[in-house]
Write a structure and sequence with these properties.
The chain is mainly α. 84% of the residues lie in helices and 0% in strands.
């Protein structure tokens, strides 16, 4: 039976653009005008998905590098990649076989589309909840500063403890020399000015006993001064070491706090969004709905292609591919026969 030649129709500019976005074979679509609306709708969804991906990637990069031109260039590049990937995913689904086989073939593509939807939705979630995220970032910064302060104080105590202990030992020994001197001075005063009950010699004034106590007092004073002169360089060294520890840690604290003040990058905003979702069911639900919206948007072209009935385009596409398969087999058969004939001729000549 002779195959009827189908008429080719022309697209308008908008139809041509949307149908090209769908990834369908335009030569076959020209012969099936009843399929134009379906594939134009699929192309429109793919187009808008790539536009959202462009905005999402551009905003994500802008929060990282704070450079408009770099963010715009990367966003466009990412959007084109998503556009091409979506076209491939949709065009690779063939409407042949049972629905079960079609669904199994489409499952990896649906999972990939869902993953892309999550990636696209996150930066836009950050923009939607920007005010709440900024407030949560301040909370995180203050919390981190408090943790840093606690860690710094712990490090100060740990590093200065040996020096402080040695200073304490020196001060305690100095106090002992001071106490011995004070005791000798009190005993001398009692001996000179005391009453009969406090005098050891029983006589007031500077007698032989008072002279011995004056010598003891001078001895204790000399011991105190000698010890002070002896330990003063070590005390200065200990004070210098303690001051150095404080200076180094203060510098570290300033550097870390400067970093904390700039805690405003993409990962920081994701952390703030996660904490907001953990602390508020409303935020978690809203974030889930936004993510679900973009996942649905991303898998919509695949689902539309999957659940749509087999149409003229699918029959023609399958027929065209089958013709190419038969043509290829025919060429291979002819080549094999020609090869066999040449082999036979070679054998007969030899």
């Amino acid at each position: 039976m002779k195959r009827k030649k189908l008429t080719s129709y022309k697209f308008n500019n908008l139809q041509h653009f949307l149908l090209a976005c769908s990834g369908a074979n335009l030569n076959i679509l020209r012969k099936t005008p009843s399929e134009w609306n379906k594939f134009a709708g699929i192309g429109g969804v793919i187009l808008f998905t790539s536009l959202f991906a462009t905005l999402s990637a551009g905003y994500a990069l802008f929060t990282v590098f704070d450079n408009l031109w770099a963010a715009a260039a990367f966003g466009i590049l990412w959007g084109l990649m998503i556009f091409n990937l979506d076209r491939y995913i949709v065009s690779s689904i063939k409407k042949t076989g049972t629905f079960r086989n079609q669904f199994l073939m489409a499952t990896p593509r649906i999972l990939l589309a869902a993953f892309l939807g999550i990636i696209i939705s996150k930066p836009l979630e950050l923009k939607v909840f920007e005010k709440e995220i900024n407030k949560q970032l301040n909370t995180i910064v203050e919390r981190n500063k408090a943790d840093i302060e606690k860690q710094m104080n712990s490090r100060i105590l740990k590093q200065t403890e040996p020096f402080e202990q040695e200073k304490k030992q020196i001060q305690e020994k100095t106090a002992q020399y001071q106490a011995a001197f004070d005791s000798a001075a009190v005993e001398l005063e009692k001996e000179i000015l005391g009453t009969k009950t406090t005098l050891t010699s029983g006589k007031e004034g500077f007698g032989p006993n008072a002279k011995r106590k004056a010598e003891l007092k001078n001895q204790r004073y000399a011991e105190l001064q000698n010890y002070r002169r002896e330990v003063q360089p070590r005390l200065n060294a200990l004070d210098s070491a303690i001051t150095k520890v404080y200076d180094n840690l203060e510098k570290s604290r300033s550097d870390v706090q400067a970093v904390e003040e700039g805690f405003n990058g993409f990962a920081a905003r994701l952390q703030a969004l996660d904490e907001l979702g953990s602390n508020s069911k409303i935020m978690a639900t809203a974030s889930l709905f936004i993510m679900g919206l973009f996942i649905a948007l991303e898998i919509a072209p695949v689902l539309v292609k999957l659940i749509s009935p087999v149409g003229p385009y699918d029959y023609l596409l399958d027929q065209t591919e089958n013709d190419y398969r038969l043509y290829s087999k025919e060429l291979m058969t002819k080549t094999e026969l020609a090869t066999e004939r040449r082999i036979e001729e070679f054998r007969s000549d030899s």
